[in-house]
Amino acid sequence: MTTNFFDVTCYKFDIMNKSTFKPGTPAPKSGQYVTVGPKGGEGKEITSTKGNPLPPAQKPGTTYKLVDPTKNKSNK
Fold it and tell me: Which of 2, 40, 55, 63 could form a disulfide linkage to 20, CB 3.0–4.6 angstroms apart?
C-alpha cells in the first residue's frame, strides 16, 4: 500500500483539528496538555513535545487536550 501526499495532508489536518487526544497518540504540537476525564472533567496538566507520545492515563476513557501551545520561533 502506498501513501500519497493527499492522504498524509488530510491525516495531519484531522489531527490538528481534533480537540482531544488519546494516551499514546503522538502530540501534534509542543505545549501543556490537560487530562480530560470520561465525563468531561479536567485534571492535571502535563508537558509534551511535538511527536512524542502522550503518557498513559490513570483511568480508562481519559484523553488529553492542548491548553497552552509552546511559543517559539519554529512554531512547532
Answer: 63
Q: Residue for cell digits 498513559?
A: 56
Provide the Cα torsion 68, 55, 21, 48; round to 10°. Answer: 30
User: Among positive and negative, which fits the CA dihedral 40, 13, 68, 24?
Assistant: positive
User: What's the CA gap between 15 and 27, in Å, rounded?
Assistant: 9
Cell of residue 54, nine digits = 502522550
Q: Sheet containing 31-36: which strands, arranged edge to edge?
A: 42-48, 31-36, 63-69
> How much is the pTM?
0.70
pLDDT for 22-32, tens place per residue? 999 999 999 99
Nearest to 65 by CA among 9, 27, 13: 27
